[in-house]
Specification:
Strand 7 and strand 8 form a beta hairpin. The protein is globular, with a radius of gyration of 22 Å. About 35% of the residues lie in helices and about 20% in strands. Helix 1 runs parallel beside helix 10 (about 365-385). The protein starts with a strand and ends in a 7-residue tail after the last strand. It is built from 15 helices and 19 strands. The protein has three domains: about 5-45 and about 80-110 and about 130-225 and about 325-350 and about 365-385, FAD/NAD(P)-binding domain (3-Layer(bba) Sandwich), CATH 3.50.50; about 230-320, Alpha-Beta Complex (Flavocytochrome C3, Chain A, domain 1); about 395-510, Fumarate reductase/succinate dehydrogenase flavoprotein-like, C-terminal domain (Methane Monooxygenase Hydroxylase, Chain G, domain 1, Up-down Bundle), CATH 1.20.58. The chain is of the alpha/beta class.
């Protein structure tokens, strides 16, 4: 049984930041990830990282923009913590080798993304997430941090009211094993595959959210599902919103601008505007001139050229809103601590309260960097003050019996993991998408319950243990169903429109009754929803 002081589950930006912070604190730390870290979804974060640089900006202004975007649901202490720390964290990334773009003076170049009142987004061409991810991975290798790759955490090991580690499945052998740790940090990323179409990578299945949910923890603000306005029509990819800030224009089929010049609304308003414009919306660079496209916009056009087969100097890039991320997640404080002793969370699977009802463009990667570091440091401090305890064998034995029961299920019904997952994604997109109403949400409740019943009976057609991808998909589907149930329950309860949550039957924002965080926990008969107040006070 592997034993560590701190175990990081997830190898994206938040997980790598947490691992490095724990290592620098002097504890024994290891990574456990279902993909190689360089294949994590963090690599697709193209826009950049927000932070206040220079005399024309301040962390207070950054915080004000963030709170305005969050539409009344941001916890102010979390926003303050992120905005205060962002510039120092980005400078540290610069110092360890992230190749940020520079301006003519050699300083960090910045562009203005939607909702930001000033240019404060540091970027590395159109591959900021990829650049940050590679640099942090190099630093983890430099620090000799052990990395268990192609392992899926299937459950938390909870004993005596504390998280003592995780149970995990190794893809290469199909064996379950217990990993003992004094502290665990969940940094498993988002849950985009609960929708289709989306911008999500194959690994975005809500694994960490489900682990916490099944352990009795609350998922916060799960109804807040953000769409990306510049999704490719035929691929699960998207163009950088930096294109809009630099002068590209969104046009309809008649070539008329959908937006006024220099107008960059928040993503929720922009996505609904594009949806109402119908088919044929495209991102047009041609007015900028071929020379400018070939220099300043080379990196903005690479994805279009390679994936969509379009040259930006001759044709516009067709785009459409695609589901991008769930803004909620595991309820944490600003140090990443959850309500379960020994368990921390950071990144897209966590909700410290910084995004509220709408994430300010450019804040997502910043939040992963800042709160990933904070979670790693807090987990290390917890481990340093916790006497190590060996796990008992009972949890692992129970998990092995459950796995054997899954393999013993018949496959005569014709139902498969794939058909259930596709039905779930289409149900969520149709009934819990950009625009929602009571009738659609009720239908979503019925459909998700039906899919959960089918999931409880579905058998596996492949019984081999080595690299059984159907088994991996089975575990991922269970997580997606958990998350879907939480999203639907929270969306049905919020009878107003706020931020990215828009209900056509309740189109107005109701500050008298809607200024709350939704909290969904796992009950014996399904999701149980409660609320908590929004913290509008500052940190100490």
């Amino acid at each position: 049984m592997p034993k560590y002081d701190v175990l990081i589950v997830g190898g994206g930006v938040a997980g790598l930041q947490a691992a490095l912070a724990a290592k620098y604190a002097g504890v024994q730390v290891a990574l456990l990830s279902k993909t190689h870290p360089l294949r994590s979804h963090s690599a697709t974060s193209s826009d950049g990282l927000n932070a206040a640089f220079g005399s024309d900006d301040s962390w207070q202004q950054h915080a004000q923009d963030t709170i305005w975007a969050g539409a009344g649901l941001c916890d102010h202490a979390a926003v303050e913590e992120m905005c205060r720390a962002a510039s120092d964290d980005i400078i540290r990334l610069d110092h360890v080798g992230v190749p940020f773009n520079r301006n003519a003076e050699g300083k960090l170049d910045r562009w203005t993304l939607g909702g930001n009142t000033l240019p404060r987004t540091a970027f590395s061409a159109d591959m900021t997430g990829h650049a940050v991810l590679n640099t942090l991975h190099e630093q983890c290798m430099r620090e000799d941090i052990p990395s268990h790759e192609e392992w899926l955490a299937t459950s938390l090991a909870v004993e005596d009211g504390c998280c003592r580690g995780v149970l995990a499945l190794e893809f290469g052998t199909g064996n379950l094993e217990a990993f003992s740790a004094s502290a665990v940090v969940l940094a498993t990323g988002g849950t985009g595959r609960v929708y289709a179409p989306s911008t999500a990578s194959q690994s975005c299945c809500g694994d960490g959210m489900s682990l916490a949910y099944r352990a009795g923890l609350s998922l916060r603000d799960m109804e807040m599902v953000q769409y990306h306005p510049l999704g490719f029509c035929e691929r699960a990819a998207f163009a950088s919103e930096g294109a809009l800030g630099e002068g590209a224009v969104l046009c309809n089929t008649d070539g008329q601008p959908v937006l006024q010049a220099n107008d960059q609304p928040l993503r929720d308003a922009l996505c609904r505007s594009l949806a109402s414009a119908g088919d044929g919306v495209a991102l047009d660079f041609r007015s900028l001139g071929k020379e400018r496209i070939g220099t300043r916009f080379l990196y903005l056009g690479r994805a279009a050229t390679e994936m969509a087969g379009i040259s930006l100097d001759t044709a516009p890039l067709p785009v459409m809103p695609r589901m991008h991320r769930v803004l909620g997640g595991i309820r944490t404080d600003t140090s990443g601590a959850t309500a379960l002793s020994g368990l921390f969370a950071a990144g897209e699977c966590a909700s410290p309260g910084v995004h509220g009802a709408n994430a300010l463009t450019g804040n997502a990667l910043t939040a992963s960097v800042v709160f990933g570091r904070r979670a790693g440091s807090a987990a290390a401090a917890h481990a340093s003050n916790t006497a190590p305890q060996a796990l008992t064998d009972s949890a692992l034995q129970d998990a092995q019996r459950t796995l054997e029961a899954v393999f013993s299920r018949p496959t005569t019904s014709g139902d498969t993991v794939v058909t259930i997952q596709r039905a779930l994604a289409s149900t969520m997109a149709e009934h819990v998408g950009l625009v929602r109403d009571e009738a659609g949400l009720r239908e979503a409740v019925r459909c998700v319950a039906d899919l959960q019943a089918r999931y409880a009976q579905v058998g596996l057609r492949h019984h081999g243990k080595m690299y059984n991808h159907e088994l991996l998909s089975f575990y991922e589907l269970g997580a997606l169903l958990d998350v879907a149930g939480a999203i639907v329950a929270a969306a049905q309860e919020r009878k107003e429109s706020r931020g990215v949550h828009y209900r056509s039957d309740f189109p107005a924002t109701n500050d008298a009754e809607g200024s709350y965080h939704s909290l969904v926990t796992c009950g014996p008969d399904g999701p149980v929803l409660t609320t908590s107040p929004v913290n509008t006070g500052q940190s100490a």
